[in-house]
Amino acid sequence: MAKLHVSTTINGEPQEFLCDAEQSMLDVLRGPLGLTGAKEGCGTGDCGACTITLNGRIVCSCLMLAAEAEGQEIGTIEGMAGEELHPLQQKFLESAALQCGICTPGVLMAAKALLEKNPDPTEHEVRFWLAGNLCRCTGYDKIIRAVMDTAADMRAAR
Amino acid sequence: MKPFTYERAGSPAEAAAAAARRPEAKFIAGGTNLLDLMKLQIETPAHLIDVNGLKLDTIEPTQEGGLRIGALVRNTDLAADERVRRDYGVLSRALLAGASGQLRNRATTAGNLLQRTRCPYFYDTNMACNKRRPGSGCSAIGGINRQHAVVGASEACIATHPSDMAVAMRVLDASIETVKPQGATRTISIAELHRLPGDTPNVETVLEAGELITAVTLPRPVGGSQQYRKVRDRASYAFALVSVAAIVQPDGSGRVALGGVAHKPWRLDAADAEMPRGAKAVAGKLFADAKPTEHNAFKLPLAERALASVLADARG
Ligand SMILES: Cc1cc2nc3c(=O)[nH]c(=O)nc-3n(C[C@H](O)[C@H](O)[C@H](O)COP(=O)(O)OP(=O)(O)OC[C@H]3O[C@@H](n4cnc5c(N)ncnc54)[C@H](O)[C@@H]3O)c2cc1C
Ligand code: SF4
């Protein structure tokens, strides 16, 4: 079947690619585009390891067709750090808020979206917001703590 | 996934015309249920019509004082809408009790109504399932059926409808606006949208092939205390074992619909009439014809207690 041609924006840069109708956004990111930060944990929307942003909102890239990126803005973990790491990335390193690291890109994408919407979340709000990101290593406490600490640092820095 | 062809529709008329041209097509909205099922080859459409560009993504007031919710309004936006939070609190609460942020950002109003059951045998293509393969039998009957229906089920299928949103829509008396492939439009009440399984559990709604949902409308607000209580195996991010959507008026009258107990949101006039008499009386009516299975009889007392707790909260 003929390939579909897709024009999109990824991390602020225009990007074109060809794909098959049945390829997911995650397939195309990790394959032809070489952006392997997003992970395939379950492929069914449960684990959140494939979290990206679509027009600024977090979604599971495993349950999105690549063809649906046409004309949209995609953000991935590769776009999170500038010259320096994002404060969340730095804090995750400092507080050992990760072990195997598979869930970390998705957790960071979701946490960044949370702090952009709500710079002063309660612990309950952080847990509710990150419910779509499963982690089998940390037991979540260090992740939640790192997000709350980053939020406090970012508020203090403003 | 089985290979398929893909096209984008730019308007409801275009989507309807595309459906008329390709009767084997399916619409794709948020894709959060359809793509999951396509990966497992439970759904194998030869053609997809992408309806995300239909511009049916606004929430407008109706002349009758209600709200008209476009079919493509995302669950996140519907839950956060100020008018929904103020006047239809049960809907906002039900939406936020479902799935995760990532999924609610994609999931649409129409797609949520039409999501398919979470019966594990439906998902396991090695098992007999009348819903997936008509005539093959039902593995849940006599199998592990803790999650399954306690009321309204049949000899052919005991699956439940998994949506939280639909239960709130049922208690709010929503109606569904559609356009058929040939262009005719109609309005279907939420009470009639979903079917009981009967002999044809593969036919889940009264929608015809290629019939597009364009909007869901809510009647004028009815006030009252609006509650949604979802009981599940863990505190977040799981489907309901039972859920209760209730609207309770200051005089004790009200309405109630249950999720997780039947093939569709479960509401009965006779049960609503018992609201002033309390949870036991209401549950008695809702479950008058209940036929629980070996593993799910716990749902009857669980639903009654969830309702009692909702009524206690409503009284303040
Ligand atoms: C991990 C996970 C957890 C979840 N947890 C919950 C939960 O706790 N509670 C809950 O309620 N839900 C839950 N869901 C389900 C989720 O709410 C649904 O997948 C979602 O609402 C479906 O909407 P969609 O727009 O993505 O539909 P799609 O997947 O795009 O479509 C679903 C069906 O609707 C049809 N369709 C879509 N739009 C239209 C239209 N306009 N007209 C006619 N037909 C149409 C499609 O053809 C398809 O058959 C969960 C899902 C996942 C993956
Ligand atoms: S309960 Fe329904 S969906 Fe589940 S196995 Fe039986 S027929 Fe299939």
From TrEMBL, chain A:
<keyword id="KW-0411">Iron-sulfur</keyword>
<dbReference type="Pfam" id="PF01799">
    <property type="entry name" value="Fer2_2"/>
</dbReference>
<dbReference type="InterPro" id="IPR012675">
    <property type="entry name" value="Beta-grasp_dom_sf"/>
</dbReference>
<dbReference type="InterPro" id="IPR002888">
    <property type="entry name" value="2Fe-2S-bd"/>
</dbReference>
<dbReference type="Pfam" id="PF00111">
    <property type="entry name" value="Fer2"/>
</dbReference>
<dbReference type="InterPro" id="IPR036010">
    <property type="entry name" value="2Fe-2S_ferredoxin-like_sf"/>
</dbReference>
<keyword id="KW-0001">2Fe-2S</keyword>
<dbReference type="InterPro" id="IPR036884">
    <property type="entry name" value="2Fe-2S-bd_dom_sf"/>
</dbReference>
<feature type="domain" description="2Fe-2S ferredoxin-type">
    <location>
        <begin position="4"/>
        <end position="80"/>
    </location>
</feature>
<dbReference type="InterPro" id="IPR001041">
    <property type="entry name" value="2Fe-2S_ferredoxin-type"/>
</dbReference>
<keyword id="KW-0560">Oxidoreductase</keyword>
<keyword id="KW-0479">Metal-binding</keyword>
<dbReference type="InterPro" id="IPR006058">
    <property type="entry name" value="2Fe2S_fd_BS"/>
</dbReference>
<dbReference type="InterPro" id="IPR051452">
    <property type="entry name" value="Diverse_Oxidoreductases"/>
</dbReference>
<keyword id="KW-0408">Iron</keyword>
<protein>
    <submittedName>
        <fullName>(2Fe-2S)-binding protein</fullName>
    </submittedName>
</protein>
UniProtKB/TrEMBL annotation, chain B:
<dbReference type="InterPro" id="IPR005107">
    <property type="entry name" value="CO_DH_flav_C"/>
</dbReference>
<dbReference type="Pfam" id="PF00941">
    <property type="entry name" value="FAD_binding_5"/>
</dbReference>
<protein>
    <submittedName>
        <fullName>Xanthine dehydrogenase family protein subunit M</fullName>
    </submittedName>
</protein>
<dbReference type="InterPro" id="IPR036318">
    <property type="entry name" value="FAD-bd_PCMH-like_sf"/>
</dbReference>
<dbReference type="InterPro" id="IPR051312">
    <property type="entry name" value="Diverse_Substr_Oxidored"/>
</dbReference>
<dbReference type="InterPro" id="IPR016166">
    <property type="entry name" value="FAD-bd_PCMH"/>
</dbReference>
<dbReference type="InterPro" id="IPR016167">
    <property type="entry name" value="FAD-bd_PCMH_sub1"/>
</dbReference>
<keyword id="KW-0274">FAD</keyword>
<dbReference type="InterPro" id="IPR002346">
    <property type="entry name" value="Mopterin_DH_FAD-bd"/>
</dbReference>
<feature type="domain" description="FAD-binding PCMH-type">
    <location>
        <begin position="1"/>
        <end position="223"/>
    </location>
</feature>
<keyword id="KW-0285">Flavoprotein</keyword>
<dbReference type="InterPro" id="IPR036683">
    <property type="entry name" value="CO_DH_flav_C_dom_sf"/>
</dbReference>
<dbReference type="InterPro" id="IPR016169">
    <property type="entry name" value="FAD-bd_PCMH_sub2"/>
</dbReference>
